[in-house]
Amino acid sequence: MAWIYLAIAIVFEIAFALGTNATKGFTKLWPSVFTLLAAAGGIYTLSLALRTLDVGVGYTIWTGIGSIGTVLFGALLFKEKITLPKVLSFASIIAGAITLKLAAGV
């Protein structure tokens, strides 16, 4: 169940990051409300995952995969460029996340 909570937390993390861009410095009401709710949801579901997972594993995967999702959705929604160095970095993050999951034995 911890990995399901972590997956949900990652979705919230991506929503939070993308929502922050839409707030225009927290000057837009509804994007700001959305962003704050996404942040709260992400922290809450991460805390549920960390009941079982080691904090180093859970937090690293949450931020790493959340970062990849944010970059990918940023490219789709905001036309940001994905370069070869970014792709190589994604591969490193994914390899690290898989290694952490295997090392955690959970």
From TrEMBL:
Protein name as it appears in the record: Multidrug efflux SMR transporter
InterPro entries: EmrE-like (IPR037185), Small_drug/metabolite_transptr (IPR000390), Small_multidrug_res (IPR045324)
Compartment(s) where it occurs, according to its Swiss-Prot or TrEMBL record: Cell membrane
Alphabetized PANTHER family for the sequence: GUANIDINIUM EXPORTER, SMR FAMILY PROTON-DEPENDENT DRUG EFFLUX TRANSPORTER SUGE
TM ranges: 29-50, 57-78, 84-104
Chief place of localization: membrane
Family under the similarity heading: Belongs to the drug/metabolite transporter (DMT) superfamily. Small multidrug resistance (SMR) (TC 2.A.7.1) family.
Taxonomic superkingdom: Bacteria
Mode of membrane association: Multi-pass membrane protein
Keyword annotations from UniProtKB, A to Z: Cell membrane, Membrane, Transmembrane, Transmembrane helix, Transport
Family matches, as Pfam families: Multi_Drug_Res (PF00893)
